[in-house]
Amino acid sequence: MTSATDTPLRALALTCSLKPSPDSSSSQLIAEQLLTELGKHGVDGELVRVVDHDVRPGVQIDMGDGDAWPRLREKVVASDILLITTPTWVGHMSSVAQRVLERLNAELSETDDEGRPSMAGKVAVAAVVGNEDGAHKIIADLFQALNDIGFSIPSQGATYWNNEAMNPVDYQDLESTPEAVASTNATLARNAAHLARLLHSAQYPAS
Fold this sequence. Notes:
Pfam families: FMN_red. By secondary structure, the protein is of the alpha/beta class. The chain contains five helices and six strands. The chain has a single domain (9-201), classed as Flavodoxin domain (Rossmann fold, 3-Layer(aba) Sandwich), CATH 3.40.50.360.
């Protein structure tokens, strides 16, 4: 019998912190935790902090003149699961996350040989951290955009942590991961890997 982890899968975590490396980042921490959880289900992962790369503004695959997005796009194309992690800033996703969505928007014009959207068959999940409210709205915005682009969203495919309002403590400052977050992280990983394997074995109908 084929086990649930026999199909090799790859995940790409695009961390959309505003802090460049090597600064510590709560968005990077939760991405690392989720990649560890995905690894328990036979998923190899890679983490990229987007702000470390010169991703130009625009809505084309390649904006030219040293644009780093085409190289990051290659990683997206090679992955089965895309994880986007973002902090909450003034109630919204970071500007880096917004730029990632804007660059992924170019995929609406790309199809495979059978007419499917270029990202069809890939799974997208999300994680949001911050010491202010807004996680549900950010996840809704991320999932609406990613689904439009062609990604599939698994059941309970998002996780988040919000501290109480106006409290300066960050996720990375916690002594341990709250049980509710850890449990949600595990569910996200389990469901994402499950859906990715299903789509790997049975692609959406041709256009």
